[in-house]
Amino acid sequence: MASVIAAVPTAHASKYLQQLCKHWQHNLAVSFTPDHGTVTFPKDARGAAWTGDALVTFDAGADALSVRIDASSDEHVDAMKGVVARHLDRFAFREAPLAFDWQAAA
Question: Which CATH architecture has domain 2-96?
């Protein structure tokens, strides 16, 4: 299992968390509140090129959105970083591109 985290600076963390979760809940397993959300990307979701599950966790703070990705491999983590960043930038178009400082999770 590979994991990364990032704190994405924004004053609209809760808004973006909810928009992302509502967007993905049509096709994926999603659970969220205004301050915390999880999205499960299953194996081979929508024809993607990865081979295992991924869990993306969001936590909204006053000045940042915390994002954690747990996936089956480093390659899958890299793919998911792109998926999350592209979708978040789409919803945060007034602030985009947002800064993602990805770090290995403990």
Answer: 2-Layer Sandwich (3.30)
Question: Tell me: the pLDDT tens digits for 60-95?
Answer: 999 999 999 999 889 889 999 999 999 999 999 898
| Distances in whole angstroms, Cα of residue 49 to Cα of each of 6, 38, 44, 66 | 23, 21, 7, 25
Q: 3-state class of 8 per DSSP?
A: strand
Plot region of 75 (φ>0 → left; ψ -120 to 50 → alpha; else → beta): alpha
**Domain map (residue ranges) of the chain:** 2-96
Other beta carbons within 10 Å of 104: 10
